[in-house]
Backbone:
């Protein structure tokens, strides 16, 4: 069976429940209760979104979210944002190093968090698009979407660790 690729206005996406969506293709085919997942969750935020049924079988792939009609794009994006919820760091409040373990206190879009980073070389990653991903010692993930939008102190504390 060949893959079904969805592009442009060939389908309408409707919010079902929780992180599930219903898909109605304009040729009459319908799929209910599908889970959208990114095939490339770090580098491809809006490209190649797979749609999985309750058994994990792929029913279709959205090539590019930006090609969908605005209402459908919002439905899929909202589901993905909820599933891949990663707090966005807006400010580094404090950074201390004790015995090689970094302790960061940060402000995020979900409040103030304090966490440890065991290995700054593998747990702080700069991506090609300017984002920085951080993994703490409990395997929680955080993101700095744009370092240039951080205040000077935050940029300085971050620079010390990169």
Residues:
């Amino acid at each position: 069976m060949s893959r079904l690729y969805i592009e442009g206005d060939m389908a309408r996406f409707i919010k079902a429940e929780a992180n599930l969506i219903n898909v109605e293709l304009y040729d009459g085919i319908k799929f209910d209760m599908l889970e959208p997942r990114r095939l490339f969750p770090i580098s491809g935020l809006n490209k190649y979104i797979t749609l999985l049924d309750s058994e994990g079988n792929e029913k279709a792939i959205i090539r590019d979210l930006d090609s969908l009609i605005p209402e459908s794009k919002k439905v899929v994006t909202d589901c993905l944002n909820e599933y891949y919820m990663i707090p966005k760091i807006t400010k580094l409040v404090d950074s201390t190093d004790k015995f090689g373990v970094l302790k960061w206190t940060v402000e995020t879009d979900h409040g103030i968090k304090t966490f440890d980073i065991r290995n700054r070389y593998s747990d702080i990653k700069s991506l090609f698009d300017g984002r920085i991903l951080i993994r703490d010692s409990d395997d929680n993930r955080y993101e700095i979407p744009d370092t240039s939008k951080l205040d000077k102190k935050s940029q300085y504390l971050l620079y010390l660790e990169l």
Notes: The CA atoms of residues 26 and 113 lie 46 Å apart. The longest strand covers residues 89-98. The two ends are 46 Å apart (CA to CA).
